[in-house]
Amino acid sequence: MSWYSGLENIVERDIALSRLTTFRIGGHAGVLLVPEDVESFAAAYAAAKKAGVPVHILGWGSNILVADEGVPGVVISTRGLINRTLADDGQTIRVEAGASMREFVRWSARAGYSGIESLAGIPGSIGGAVVMNAGALGACLGDSVSAVWYVTEGGELVRRSGEDISWDYRETDIDGPVAAVEMELTRDEPDCVLDRMADALMARRSQQPVGIPSAGCFFRNPPGESAGRLIDEAGLKGMSVGGASISARHANFIVNQGGATAAHVCELGDIVRDRVRDCFGVELKNEVCVWPSAVA
Ligand SMILES: Cc1cc2nc3c(=O)[nH]c(=O)nc-3n(C[C@H](O)[C@H](O)[C@H](O)COP(=O)(O)OP(=O)(O)OC[C@H]3O[C@@H](n4cnc5c(N)ncnc54)[C@H](O)[C@@H]3O)c2cc1C
User: Fold this and answer.
1) All residues at 6 or more sequence positions from 94 whose CB lies less than 8 Å from its CB, including other chains
2) Would the pTM of this model clear 0.70, i.e. be above it?
3) Helix 190-207 crosses helix 101-110 at what angle (to 10 degrees)?
4) What CA–CA distance (Å, rounded) separates 210 from 72?
5) What residue ranges line ligand 1, CB within 6 angstroms?
6) Tens-digit pLDDT profile for the chain (296 aa)?
């Protein structure tokens, strides 16, 4: 009997993770579980933990570089967790982890909820955005999260208040798979929120490469500095290794021009790190999550 006995209806086997990431790079997952509700998400995680199987949680794959060899153990996807409900107070919105961040920002603006409109256009899921504390134009998602529901190793769903979470630059101290998020947004005229959202989208389109596979900014900005500016001033824009290139549009984007492998991206990343260290004495750190990683 396999460790996922009872969960066979949500199992997919030997799945190319390149199809599930925006980089379009990476090897296979031997076992991919795609739960369709929060309870089976919790059960899947608990079953894997009980069996000692390494786990990776996959949102929409917009901030991941998967190794060419794939990942061991199991990948649990949140893409089936998409419900959204409004509490009786008319203020708190509960969104499941696999819901689209872009779609949620759009829905909020149209419904006259303000607070996250400057995050318009960030790809990925709500769960991924919470764990990464995704942000843009000086705002980040953590500013508007009132609580997070996460799963313990025993499969319990636990509510943690947003105030108790450390919301740092592109990281948090949430240490379990996020199943759902409670958002507290303020009310405003839909037209005003939509205007601010349109401005944020315009700023994004003018700065980032559009329509070319990537995982967004590859490196974290060092304190008080822009990684993109350092990479640009080190003369690296346009440099390639195999199918991986430094975007000519935004130097902190490594893009897949076609046929890039994870090995190409890692080699290019190492070149960038070395050159920036030599030129400016600054150590760049990855923003993109490299899989396999320390497992969830
Ligand atoms: C073109 C482009 C532009 C981008 N612009 C921005 C930007 O402006 N600002 C910004 O902050 N980011 C940006 N990103 C990066 C990315 O979109 C965000 O980090 C996003 O929030 C990741 O969400 P995801 O669902 O795709 O997560 P994934 O890529 O699937 O996962 C990222 C990490 O989060 C973990 N994770 C995902 N879901 C869960 C969960 N439910 N529970 C526990 N762990 C989980 C994964 O295990 C992994 O470690 C951009 C990416 C692209 C491709």
Assistant:
1) 83, 84, 85, 86, 87, 180, 181, 182, 183
2) yes
3) 150
4) 32
5) 22, 56-64, 78, 97, 122-125, 127-129, 131-132, 134-136, 177-178, 208, 214-216, 289
6) 789 999 999 999 999 999 999 999 999 999 999 999 999 999 999 999 999 999 999 999 999 999 999 999 999 999 999 999 998 888 899 999 999 999 999 999 999 999 999 999 999 999 999 999 999 998 999 999 999 999 999 999 999 999 999 999 999 999 899 999 999 999 999 999 999 999 999 999 999 998 999 999 999 999 999 999 999 999 999 999 999 999 999 999 999 999 999 999 999 999 999 999 999 999 999 999 999 975 44
Nearest CA to ligand 1 atom 52: 216
Which whole-number Å values give the CA distances from 5 to 10, 47, 48, 238, in the listed order? 11, 9, 11, 49
Structure tokens at 285: 């750190």
Mutate to test the pocket of ligand 1, among 62, 219, 290 (most ligand atoms within 8 A of CB): 62
Ligand 1 atom at minimum distance from 209 CA: 1
Active site residue 170: yes
Catalytic pick among 106, 170, 204, 273? 170
Residues 263 and 255: beta-carbon distance below 8 Å: no
> Is 79 one of the catalytic residues?
no
Q: What is the DSSP letter of 6?
A: T
